[in-house]
């Protein structure tokens, strides 16, 4: 069951995204989502402890990247971003890479959400091409 606090923040997030981007899609998991270039951003509101909410945003940048020490070094040391960080998930077919960032939901304001979403999506759109060229794998969408 979704708490009233999460529902209130979800409504706020949807309003901020719609005001900024004109419309926003909602996927089968209830996440807000939009495309930018070859990247797709997902935004989810959830509980953070007993009395807070978190707005998590992520963009899967690359899937099925062959695992290598060089790839994991790239993900671990590529940390010069103002908003967001890279993460790697090992899967059967290889490694999936995502770019992610989180914000506190209860005190969220429109500029904070929209600027973070724009920077995250733009960075993910650049990273996916670089990772594919250097390490292989697939991007969420082709350029």
Describe what you observe in this structure.
The protein is α+β, with helices and mostly antiparallel strands and 143 residues long. The chain has helices spanning 4-21, 69-77, 110-135, and strands spanning 25-26, 32-36, 39-47, 53-65, 85-91, 94-104, 138-139. Strands 1, 2, 3, 4, 5, 6 and 7 form a seven-stranded antiparallel β-sheet that branches. Strand 3 (39-47) and strand 4 form a beta hairpin. The longest helix is centred in the last third of the chain and has 26 residues, at 110-135. The protein is globular and about 45 Å long. The mean pLDDT is 93.
Primary descriptors:
single chain; alpha+beta; seven-stranded antiparallel β-sheet; 7 strands
Quick structural overview:
By secondary structure, the protein is α+β, with helices and mostly antiparallel strands.
User: Please, how many helices?
Assistant: 3
**How many strands, what sense, and barrel or not for the largest sheet?**
7 strands, antiparallel
Spell the H/E element sequence.
Answer: HEEEEHEEHE
Structural class: alpha+beta
Taking the alpha carbons of the first and last residues, their distance comes to: 39 Å
Over all CA atoms, what is the radius of gyration? Answer: 16 Å
- Contiguous low-pLDDT stretches (5 residues minimum) are none
* Backbone shape: globular
Count the strands? 7
The percentage of residues in β strands lies in 25-35%
């Amino acid at each position: 069951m979704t708490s009233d606090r999460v529902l209130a923040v979800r409504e706020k997030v949807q309003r901020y995204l719609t005001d900024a981007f004109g419309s926003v899609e909602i996927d089968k998991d209830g996440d807000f989502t939009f495309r930018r270039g070859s990247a797709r951003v997902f935004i989810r509101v959830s509980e953070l402890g007993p009395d807070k909410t978190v707005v998590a945003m992520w963009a899967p940048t690359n899937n099925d990247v062959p695992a290598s020490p060089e790839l994991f070094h790239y993900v671990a040391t590529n940390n010069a971003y103002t908003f967001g960080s890279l993460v790697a998930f090992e899967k059967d077919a290889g490694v999936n890479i995502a770019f992610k960032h989180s914000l506190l939901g209860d005190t969220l304001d429109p500029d904070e959400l929209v600027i973070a979403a724009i920077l995250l999506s733009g960075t993910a759109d650049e990273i996916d091409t670089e990772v594919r060229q250097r390490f292989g794998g697939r991007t969420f969408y082709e350029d």
